[in-house]
Amino acid sequence: MKLDPKIPSGPLEEKWEKHLNDIKLVSPNNKRKHKIIVVGTGLAGASAAASLAELGYNVLTFNIMDSARRAHSIAAQGGINAAKNYQNDGDSVWRLFYDTIKGGDYRSREANVYRLAQNSNLIIDQCVAQGVPFGREYGGLLDNRSFGGAQVSRTFYSRGQTGQQLLLGAYQAMMKEVHSGKIKDYPRQEMLDLVVVDGVARGIITRNLVTGEIQKWEADAVVLCTGGYGNVFYLSTNAKNSNATAMWRCHKRGAAFANPCFVQIHPTCIPVSGDYQSKLTLMSESLRNDGRVWVPRKKGDKRPANEIPEDERYYYLEERYPSFGNLVPRDVASRNAKLVTDDGLGVGDTGLAVYLDFRDAIKRDGIEVIRAKYGNLFDMYENITDENPYETPMRIFPAVHYTMGGLWVDYDLMSNIPGLFVAGEANYSDHGANRLGASALMQGLSDGYFIVPYTIGDYLADADLPKVDTGHDAFKEAADASSGLLDKLLAVKGDKTIIEFHRELGKILWDKVGISRSKEGLESAIKEIRELREEFWQNVKVPGEANYYNKYLEYASRLADYFELAELMALDALDRNESCGCHLRDEYQTEEGEAIRNDKDYAFVSAWEFVDVNGKLETKLHKEPLEFEFVEMKQRSYK
Amino acid sequence: MSEMTINLKIWRQKNEDDPGRFEEYKLPGVNEHMSFLEMLDVLNEKLIKEDKDPVEFDYDCREGICGSCNLVINGRAHGPKHKTAVCQLHMRTYNDGDTIVIEPPRAAAFPVIRDLVVDRTAFDRIIEAGGYVSVKTGAAPEANLIPVPREISEESFDYATCIGCGACVAACPNSSAALFTGAKIAHLNLLPQGTPEREKRTLAMVEQMEKEGFGDCSNYAECEAVCPVGISISSIAQMRKDYMKAVF
After folding, report:
1. Contacts of A70 in chain B (CB under 8 A)
2. Which CATH number fits domain A267-399: 2.30.30.100, 3.90.700.10, 1.10.260.40, 1.20.1250.20?
3. Do B37 and A278 make contact, defined as CB atoms within 8 angstroms?
4. Buried b (16+ CB within 10 A) or exposed e, B63-98
5. Quick one: pLDDT at residue A240?
6. Domain A473-625 top-level CATH class
7. Residues of A marked as catalytic
8. Of A318, A557, A281, which is closest to residue B61 (Cα–Cα)?
């Protein structure tokens, strides 16, 4: 396996522009002859599809929901970063770049991250022109807020529903091209395999989720924009249908999987209430701008929060991190929530929660100011928990939220399989070991609007693509493999439900491949995952048949992939003998619980090659060294 | 924490051609903190263990923002709670022994796929007809070159919050999509960015809405009453005003 990141030479500030000047163009006549498949229509997919169609390519879009507008990008609340410096607080492309690479704990590529910061400003221009209603000041110009640990106000927002408004903008741009005839849109279709002919991505296999039909689609390039794999944990803030199947099947066809153990656990979510719990709800971390996080100082203090006097409250983030306080990055906030609950200081029925308290902010600013800022979030909280956060502190706890790992890509966002591009959360590209708040939307749209549409042209201009149609043996083989797997799942006819298996797998991961990991825990996780996977194939009960709408069959097929991916995540975590970003190994931390990075041995991207699954997952580890020419690698400190 | 037994009467339909029928289920062990959809998950676990077909229903984010879920509960789209999508409805709303009738949103333009799952691609085609600003990637001016008075921006935003669930259609005696269509027209037409295409957009979207088989609006305002995000019927007034301007 050859992993060439293909980073352009030259000064950091000039790399992307130079690359844009160097890459080959496809003439309008020739663009019209190319067919490009885009899988997934969230921010990255919809924006890529719209932009590619505008350029003149013929685009086919596929998504598993009933409409492109449902993609999980829609659920992002807080905002999107850009280095506009509208607030005159000293922001710049460099600072956004620097914060992002530092926030990722120096486990991402300088060149990619710098380009992301450069593109951030274009995204805001584009979205405003589309009619995305960002928050504005009374003068009619755009407003910003400080978000997720940033010391400047660079976050653009649309109330608490920025993802929704950005996605609708991208979806509408995409529908504009459906109208023009350049995009053919196929909702309720799930990608089950990548078709590789002579080492090059030439199409996909899908299942029509309404009829159950297995379908073959050929193209000159495939753009995978299918999001992250957080749902491997069973409980996460991801939408229920988000899954890893498309990316995992590409991995099994040869695409390297990078940094699978880098999983972000978001500190502000509504705690679990019972076994029936199907997903976790995120409360935007913008709440930490005004809310104060605390637990009682005394173990087992069961008094209602409001009866606990000030000096018996432990504002642990403010005490431990005086300069950042409640605004420390997500990984630091999550880890500290775990530390205090591990010490028995947690609150609520389960003891697995901490308080997020607005009492002082309400006293300072008045209830109306707080209502204007967070009203919809407070309503959401009250609706779910039946408690009024204006009167009593919220209870929050960390939950799996975002996966920084993903398919390996080069600077052009192409995987190691020529013709397979990967954009958005599905690639591993920009966030290193930890993603900062309000940068997922930025990355999805940077990839989709402003990177893939250009780099794909460079590939197509040069690629030798003999005509291939769906009659080719590779399509037949992949289609048979896809339907064979579904038949195999239906044939097990065991006793245990899909959800029961998934809940057990999730528990193993949460306990041992979650907020903190240890050698011993990871080794036992790998063993348990293998045993459970074996039991799954002996004893899962999948209802119904394959030839009609059958959501539980879709689910079973995704879970089969999670069982393999889970093992890879644990392997990757075990191999990485350091703590960095969201990856905390118990063995590598200071006495105060701060991460100890090992730049000498681990400043690399781990890129795993799939070999086979025979009881155990057989893999080969490749390393892409990370070189830091322009920034100095520092120990993160938020003290 | 008390547990409830709930009697469910659920619409079952194998496909578009199947006439469909209600089936009844008794579900014990329902916890007040469960969401309505989690209650259906629990029912499906029970059905699967009994070798029966689980009930199909659409869902995704379970946070009230994606617009996938769209059940009609006891005759009301999204159930009894005002401005709440069914995924955000919790079982504490109900009492032990209650009977709950669950149906798909019924409209000629929303054919049933299976059980409670319907095809809402008619909504995509309405957006496709003109629900956008025709700006190409890369062609945008600097963002602050387009100032928008805050009041206009906020009003436009109120319409932009539509989640496209289709409850408005299910609730309307005429199965009209006027609230959905009006919301997108009002969102874009109010903004300076949307002004150049205002007339073209309005005509195209209204025509597409009619072509899809949605009925006319007769001002029942049932749509506004069930809308999980509280889209106002003033959006329909905006649509009509712009339509009249475009026609004459």
Report:
1. 60-61, 66-68
2. 3.90.700.10
3. yes
4. bbbbbbbbbbbeebbbbebeebbbbbbbbeebeeee
5. 98
6. mainly alpha
7. 330
8. A281
Decide if the complex's ipTM is over 0.95. Answer: yes
Which CATH number fits the domain that encloses residue B33? Answer: 3.10.20.30
H-assigned helices in A386-497 = 440-445, 452-462, 473-492
Q: Do B121 and A67 touch (CB under 8 A)?
A: yes
Kindly determine whether residue B60 and residue A241, on different chains, have CB atoms separated by under 8 Å: yes
Across A314-338, average pLDDT? 91
Q: How far is CA A30 from CA A26, A34, A463, B79, in A?
A: 6, 7, 13, 53
* Tally of domains in chain B: 2
Question: Which letter does DSSP use for residue B8 in this model?
Answer: E
Q: Are residues B44 and B132 in the same domain?
A: no
CB A637: neighbour CB atoms within 10 A? 9
Query: Which one of A279, A445, A545 would you mutate to disrupt binding with B, by most B Cβ within 10 Å of its Cβ?
Result: A279
pTM over 0.80: yes
Examine the pLDDT at A330 and tell me if it is beyond 90.
no
Same domain, B68 and B86: yes
- A74 — contact with chain B (CB < 8 Å)? yes
Q: Dump pLDDT digits (tens) for B108-125.
A: 999 999 999 999 999 999
Query: Under 8 Å CB-to-CB from A591, ≥6 apart: which residues?
Result: none
Domain range for B56 is 3-114
With 70 as the cut, is the pLDDT of residue B1 above it?
A: no
Q: What is the arithmetic mean of pLDDT over A461-489?
A: 97
> What are the C-alpha distances in Å from A435 to residues A280, A330, B238?
19, 8, 42
